[in-house]
Amino acid sequence: MPQNGLQTGSPLIAIAADSEQKVIYVHEEMQTFLRYPVSDCSGRELSEVIWDIAEQRIEFKPDERSWEVFFTREGEEYHLAVQRLYSGRDQAMPEITVILQKSGDREKRRLEQELSLNLQRYKIALSRCNNIIWEYHVDEDCAYLQGIRSLPFVQSGKIEDFSRKMMRDRHVDKESLPAVRQMFLDLRAGKLMACALLHTSQPEGGQSWYRVTHTMLHDGDGPDNIAIGVVEDISKEQKEQEKYQQEEKYRQALMGDALASYEIDIDNDMIIEKIIEKKKDMLASVGLSVNCKYSQFLKCWAEKNVHPEDRFLFLQEMNPKFLRSQYERGRQEAVCEYRSLNAEAEMIWCNTTIYLIESGGHLTGFVYVKNVEEKKRRELELLRQSRIDPLTNLLNRAASLQEINYILNENGQKESALLIIDVDNFKNVNDTFGHMYGDKVLAGIAYKLKNIFDTDAIVGRLGGDEFLVFLFNIQDEDAVYRKAQMVARELQTIQEEGENRIAVNNSIGIAVSPRHGTRFQELYVKADTALRYAKQSGKSCYSVFGDKISRVVPMEYVNREWLLDELEEIVYISDIQDYTLLYVNRVGRDLFGMKLEDFEKQKCYQMLQGRNTPCPFCNNAKLVKDKFFMWEYENPYLKKYFIVKDKLVEWNGRPVRMEIAVDVGNHLIGDRATTAKYHMETVMLESLRTLNSADDLETGITRILELITRFYDGERSYIIEIDREHGYAHNIYEWCREGVPPQKASLQNIALDAIPYIVETFNKKQHLILSQVEELKYTYPSEYQFLTRRNAHSLFAVPFEDESAFCGYIGVDNPNINQDTIRFLDSIAYNIANEIKKRRLYERLEFEAGHDTLSGLLNRSSFVRYQNGVQRKFGESCGMITADINGLKQLNQDYGHSRGDETIITVTEVMRSCFPDGEIFRLSGDEFVIIAMNQEYEGFMKHVREMGLELDSQTPNGVSLGATWVEHLTDFDMLLHHAEELMLVNKQIYYKNSDDVRKHYSPERMKLLVHDVEQGYYRLYLQPKFDPETGTVHSVEALSRYQAPGHELQSPVKFVSLLEKMKLIRYLDFYMLEEVFRLLSRWKTEGRPLIPVSVNFSRITLLESDLFQMLTEIKNKYDVPSSLVMIEITESIGDIEHKVIEAVGSKLRKAGFRISLDDFGADYANMSILSIMHFDEVKLDKSLIENLVGNEKNQIVVKCIIEMCRSLHVDCVAEGVETKEQLELLKAYGCTTIQGYYYSKPVEVEQFSV
């Protein structure tokens, strides 16, 4: 409430009263008008208080809403406005308010004059227009109309429930109702203006359009609850607009991103307007002008601009005769994609779409040309990615097979050869140097193969370390053997560089065509068999099938006649010389009324055409083997119209004619009524535009189904897809009118046996028109139930095909109008089927580019993309698993690749079941990576353990796993490296426990290590640790030294890093641990004092999954407390994930060992490790001790570390102490243990004494 004095023109809510006119509030400024205190007004009668203020009586009548009182006090004129409120929503709110306002006589007269003028203006405007006007009270939903007789406003006076009555008026079209409803909602929400467009039907049959506008009244402070409604009759303007839109619809569809658009007269073969692209006259560019022959333009344009490879397609699909035939077959558009020069002389991919429009029996077309270069590039790149192996850039397995099959089909009898190349001992490369190194080896092999086989060859990667080469146009078999020798020689030397000098050999299996077969599967089986023989014969060689091994049993023969009898099209075979019929399939025999033996020695023109002489249109001379000759023909003998495909095929060793004829029904198409036809074409155009412009397929098809439903005035439109392989039908898309319940969810997995009538109709390539579903009640009871359950009493449906086979249908339930235009639905089905097929092909190519063909998992390309974009997941928890199938290579060699493939599929299924939400990648033949984001550590490790057990039970040799987890992802590559490190550690355990694999994979260095250990070349040295206060020994460190006969003694620096790189350090670590236990046991037997002994363990050994088992086995051999043994861990373990470090510490503590942190402060300075794992001892790295004297900063660091150890109750050891100055400083800092040359160098066991 305002607290300042009352000013002229400034309103004040002075008094509020309840519904019984009892005062409940009076503003304090009213005190000047009252004889008694303001506080005494509560509870008084409102009329009494107003009398005390203005000395005027107000009679509150129930049907009145407001009253006015004017009074004068001390020469000033005041105005009381009393208003009754009707909210009723909150009983605490006042029902009557009194507003006080000061206004002089001049102000009052000015307001009255302005009101009078406005009233006159309103009356003049109302008399000069034909609009309908009313007053609408928003809160009460009532309107006041006077003398209105125009539909749908035939009432006058006060109309209650005004909004509801307007929406329920039978003359208002249902499509207008959403706009009307929104108009009233906007008014109730407080909008100042709200509009709606009404479409009404008149009793005499006409139609009208009205624009309804409501404008809220203002009282100067804001909108009131009253709006003025104005209705304008815009029927004339609307009809003119619709006419204009209809005339421009096609042309507008062609504009936008079109390079060029123009109109052609198809029947008169004429271009009837200029073709302009970027202001360049394209007709003039080929020497032509408007009204020239369209076919002449096509010829000139093709010769000058169209890419030579695309000219035939361009001329065939764009010529006027073909366009006419397409229209007569029910097509509404023709589309052709080709490469052509544009206005800037650039060769680009173009899409030309011609909308076919018939008027008065005359066919014209609107043509528009689009630049689809980017789209085509994406499609071609996806196609390329789906065919190329990302690591080697060779063809992948699927693409190689496709190319080879094509060549064999074209030149099956010409000499060719298939080579399968397997890299010997490649597993050794991966296990020794890591998979990234192995990838480089494979890429190098691929590079060599491409150089060796640069022409007349297909080179591909089968998977893992297997490659294939298919040679065609070979001179003789000796040329193949020379190439094989070249491969063996070149690949053998590919890895003879570098420090480790691991030779990579190869084995090759060869099969030659046509001697060993003319189909890829035959050649592959025999080449694979030859490869296995080469492997068994010592590797590094090649073997030709049949030369040294028995022949493979030939594959089962499939009878060709039986296969053709299963086709649903008419197929016949005849001699191309004398026209003798050699074979007619079952469909053809049934159609012509033949028996199997009837056509023997009969002529094709007699039996099939009813002629006595060869057909004058016979095209035998035009037929070739590599492609079909397609044409259309109406058979006068059968009175049917067919699409015919002819080609030459081999039949019992000789070339013959094979014809496939598809019945497309009656060729004649009846005329349509002009209005219905135009409506159909308009909806068709809208459907095509929707299909082409929709962001996704589902949105586009749903919109088209809506158009179909409205075109036929049906209740529901839908698409059913047929799964013939499993015998089911599925509702994949639907659109329902308002109030019609959706059926899609309930129409899944429909057995085809349950809809026999529909299936039979579509198998006969007929449309389904059911005017009464009741017709099926007794003949097809299951189908009758199927339809009536969804309240379908009538039905339209047409089938669509994929590769000439019925694969689904599009239907409309309960159509009411346009029932003679089934052709419209047929055309829509054709376009939708094509779009579904095209987009699914695009999705399949996109899927194949990022997925492994065999397993369906994400492939290496996807992993690289994931790796590049992983930054957006930084900060989230991440679990990573690397996996390697044990012995997969041996499995392929012993049992064939099919067994190996089965194992890969089994591994895939187990991984998916254990990590359904994880990202799973197959990187190569036997390598996998699993990434699980946002999982708790305990849950993640539980799934890892379950997966490991499941893989061990379901695969022949199990799978080596490396799993690690980090709470906050910051370094993806480091996490991957740790997981691979763990996997390789577990891989070594597998090699150790598997005799066959150890013999096959054990590197020479491991054999040498075992030999040196057994011979005692690795020796145990001891270096004591001293108490600096007493100078006595209280513990000792066990160190390894190596000395071969005749050589100098070597420190660990010379051999530990190499053993770690070769993943052999575990053998030395466990050997040294056992030597320590053996030493302590000997001391105990000899009665010598037992002091703690520390022994170094590599990080790789600590990460082994069976660490606890190995520690327990060793300590249980000796009667020595394990607490006397301290395991020294280098500080480098600090870069391992914290949960893994915790697990390592837990295993050591569980086995009873003490733990020492070695080399603290060397490279990592990772303080957090001290908070993760409890250490009994921390050893300062000798680099800190070397710079201690004279380096103040270094002294501060060392002193702080010693104080920190004291606070953590951890013994601090200074390592590498060599001078008295160093010793004195360390004593002053409180260091508890000293180790170094100042007291003692490492000595042999026999020289050591306490």
From TrEMBL:
Q: Which Gene3D superfamilies match?
A: 3.30.450.40, 3.30.70.270, EAL domain (3.20.20.450)
**Gene label:** gmr_9
Q: What is this protein called?
A: Signaling protein
Q: Which UniProt keywords apply?
A: Hydrolase
Q: Which residues form the GGDEF domain?
A: 414-547, 876-1000
Q: Which residues form the EAL domain?
A: 1002-1250
Residue ranges annotated as coiled coil are: none
Q: Which PANTHER family match?
A: BIOFILM ARCHITECTURE MAINTENANCE PROTEIN MBAA, DIGUANYLATE CYCLASE DGCP
Drop me one GO molecular function for this one: cyclic-guanylate-specific phosphodiesterase activity
Q: Name one Pfam family in it.
A: EAL
- EC no. given is 3.1.4.52
